[in-house]
Amino acid sequence: MPKLWNTTLEAHRRDVKEAVLDAAAALVGEVGLRAITMAQVAERANIGRATLYKYFPDVESILHTWHDRQVDDHLRQLQQIHDGVGRHRLDAVLTEYGRIMRQSGSHDTELVRLLHPNRQVGAARQRLHDMLRSLIEESAGNAAVRDDVDAAELATYCLSALNAAATVSSDDELGRLVAVITDGLRPRT
Predict the structure, then answer these.
(1) N or C: which end of the chain has fewer CB within 10 A?
(2) Which residue, 27, 60, 64, is CA-closest to 42?
């Protein structure tokens, strides 16, 4: 098969898959998790049901794939902040993760229960923990973060505390939550 054909076919498959994921996510928001059907997803994605079944066996697998894409996007975003320049990267990662948690707090609880036992969530949480640990270690070396507590323990504390971001209702409230967390990271005087 010529390379151009192969590249075009791969791009087409990727586009179809993205359309299916976007369609399913929109439908869950409109009709709810229990009411969504493969026929609705196919219609919304503008593809035939037979084509849809070539990609996904059921709605649940579509939703898991959509969630995996969301998690990957969030991790990329957080990694860019982590890899950036400046001494406020730790605060920026904490704030952005708080925004993500706040956004996830608005999701349907049934959808969250379905998607969160996923293995990728555990791996993503470990990656985020490692990002925070490295920023804490770096900041502790600059005396910006306490060094009397292990960096991994502080990273765990930050992630646990940021779970509360799922319940905040404003950016100001999120800012106060992040400020309380960062206050706990400061060296004792």
Answers:
(1) C
(2) 27
Per-residue pLDDT tens over the stretch 68-101:
888 899 999 999 999 988 778 999 999 999 999 8
Q: How far is CA 63 from each of CA 11, 76, 85, 188, rounded to the nearest angstrom?
A: 21, 20, 35, 46
How many domains would you assign to the chain? 2
Let me know: does 63 contact 111? Beta carbons within 8 Å.
yes
pTM: 0.79
Same domain, 42 and 74: no
Token pair in block for residue 154:
């502080």
User: Which domain range does residue 112 map to?
Assistant: 59-189
Query: Could you give the CA distance from residue 162 to residue 181 in angstroms, rounded to a whole number?
Result: 8
Q: What amino acid occupies position 164?
A: A
Helix 89-105 × helix 171-185 angle, to 10°:
130
